[in-house]
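User: Okay, second chain of the day. Same drill as before: sequence in, structure tokens out.
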Amino acid sequence: MKNLQTISGQKNKISDKANSSSTNNVINIDNDKISPPLLDEANENMPCPEDALNTVVQQFPLETVLEKYFSTDTNSAVSLSNVLAKFVSNYMSSNQKIRTNVLDILSEDHSKDFLDHAIQENLSTVVCDRLNLNSVIEYICAKSKINTTCRNNLITQIPFIFKHSKLESERIDFIKDLMRQNNLTDTEIVNLLSSIMQMRAVCDNKSVGVSESAVDSSSNL
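Assistant: Same drill. Structure tokens below.
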């Protein structure tokens, strides 16, 4: 019986030593002594925005940077294109070579759209002044052969053109050419002469009326 008690006491002593040993092996952590990350030192090691920008400019071509901007979901392609267009436009205003290069590229890659937009942004007189006059006349005459409206407008303008002509021979030559090209018959020529004399009589009456009105006005003074 004493032996059993002795063995039991020894087991208790061994268990107490094991618990004591495991307790001593536990690392005591003092939360107050844990150091936070050294944010200030990390910020000091980061490059400044200006240095980062210089690095991008030196190491990446402009095409790569622009593609990155336009492919970013958070950016609007339309907004970016407006910024880019205004930026290039400012340099075009002060640099002839840049202006010529940009206009050449736009007119070559988007010739029809470029022309349409230029016409919309300018007066018709400004556009026509930059065209070859003979080419414009040839186009109008060719258009009048197949377009009734164009032909009527052209015929309507001819009398006003010769009205401002200071050369009588120019007007007579035009009438001769007109009659020759139309191959008028004798009857048509007689009818034409009759219409011309009637119009002349009407014009003479109008001029007489104007003269009489002028005389009456002067007599009332």
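The chain has a mean pLDDT of 77.

User: Thanks, on to the next one.
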